[in-house]
């Protein structure tokens, strides 16, 4: 009986020691990994990387280190690695099928790093989301919308979607349409539009602003205005031209399109 108790005590002591050591290694390992990743992000080598690549690389390094830590903890607990590998190999197919979406997102993240359809800091519209790219992780890309909402989009979706990068080019064109009454003189309206566009300090002289009659109805004429500006000035030019043309129409007595009113008599 005493021998049995001594053996049990020895097993409990050994198992408890392994559990305690594994817990310590796990806690310390997590702290070390976070510190290492944080240090790498602040290093000069990471600072030289393009923002999208740096974000993805940090996520990848963190994932690899956590895998190594998990294997180390399993080894400390005394689980034979051969058995672990066998179990992982047996479960690999099932896990792969269950994680098709995650694997697709991982593959999408890798493809984003290779082809770089956008960069961190770009204003992008894709897969039903629009915003400034904040970071690209292993599985997701994070956007910040113009009204400061955080949008997380799976990388797999991005690689299968049309991506519009509004920040990719140095210049952008502002396209606006204005309407006036059919009775107005087209040449006069065109001159007003060109004058407003050309007088704006942020509108480029080359390419020159464009304003022409582009359509209309029985009651109105429609004019299209196109003005080039620097990418960062797009919204300033857009709103300034909208307001400037409206004010210029008022100062020059330009009439708004007529509104057709239909009066129907009801007879009984």
Write up what this structure looks like.
The chain is α+β, with helices and mostly antiparallel strands and 268 residues long. The chain folds into three domains: 2-98, Helix Hairpins (Orthogonal Bundle); 109-165, SH3 type barrels (Roll), CATH 2.30.30.60; 171-251, 2-Layer Sandwich (Alpha-Beta Plaits), CATH 3.30.70.100. Helices cover 53% and strands 20% of the residues. It is built from eight helices and eight strands. The strands form two sheets. The chain has a five-stranded antiparallel β-sheet with strand order 4-3-2-1-5. Strand 2 (129-136) and strand 3 (140-144) form a beta hairpin. The longest helix has 41 residues, at 2-42. The chain starts with a helix and ends in a 17-residue tail after the last helix. Residues 261-268 have low confidence and may be disordered.
Give the CA-CA distance, first to last residue: 111 Å
Largest sheet entry: 5 strands, antiparallel
Q: What is the N-to-C order of secondary-structure elements (H for helix, E for strand)?
A: HHHHHEEEEHEEHEEH
- The count of strands amounts to 8
> In the residues, how many domains can be counted?
3
Q: What is the CATH architecture annotation of the largest domain?
A: Orthogonal Bundle
Strand content: 15-25%
**Assigned CATH class of the largest domain:** Mainly Alpha
Low-confidence stretches: 261-268
Instruction: Please tell me how large the radius of gyration is.
Output: 32 Å
| CATH fold description of the largest domain | Helix Hairpins
Q: Average pLDDT, to the nearest integer? A: 83
Give the CA-based shape: elongated
The strand order across the widest sheet is 4-3-2-1-5
> Which structural category do the helix and sheet elements fall into?
alpha+beta
Helix content bin? 40-55%
Helical segment count: 8
């Amino acid at each position: 009986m005493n021998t049995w108790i001594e053996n049990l005590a020895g097993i409990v002591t050994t198992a408890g020691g392994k559990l305690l050591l594994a817990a310590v290694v796990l806690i310390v390992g997590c702290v070390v990994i976070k510190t290492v990743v944080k240090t790498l992000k602040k290093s000069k080598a990471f600072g030289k990387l393009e923002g999208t690549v740096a974000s993805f690389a940090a996520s990848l390094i963190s994932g690899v280190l956590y895998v190594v830590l998990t294997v180390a903890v399993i080894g400390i607990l005394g689980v034979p690695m051969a058995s672990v590998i066998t179990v992982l190999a047996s479960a690999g197919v099932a896990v792969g099928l269950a994680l098709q979406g995650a694997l697709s997102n991982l593959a999408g993240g890798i493809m984003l790093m290779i082809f770089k359809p956008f960069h961190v800091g770009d204003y992008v519209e894709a897969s039903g989301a629009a915003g400034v790219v904040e970071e690209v992780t292993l599985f997701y890309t994070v956007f910040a919308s113009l009204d400061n909402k955080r949008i997380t989009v799976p990388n797999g979706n991005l690689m299968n979607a049309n991506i519009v990068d509004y920040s990719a080019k140095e210049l952008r064109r502002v396209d606006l349409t204005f309407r006036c009454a059919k009775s107005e003189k087209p040449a006069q309206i065109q001159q007003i539009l060109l004058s407003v566009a050309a007088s704006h300090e942020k509108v480029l002289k080359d390419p020159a602003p464009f304003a022409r009659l582009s359509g209309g109805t029985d009651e109105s004429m429609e004019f299209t205005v196109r003005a080039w500006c620097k990418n960062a000035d797009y919204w300033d030019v857009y709103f300034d031209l909208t307001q400037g043309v409206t004010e210029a129409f008022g100062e020059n007595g330009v009439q708004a399109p007529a509104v057709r009113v239909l009066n129907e008599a009801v007879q009984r």
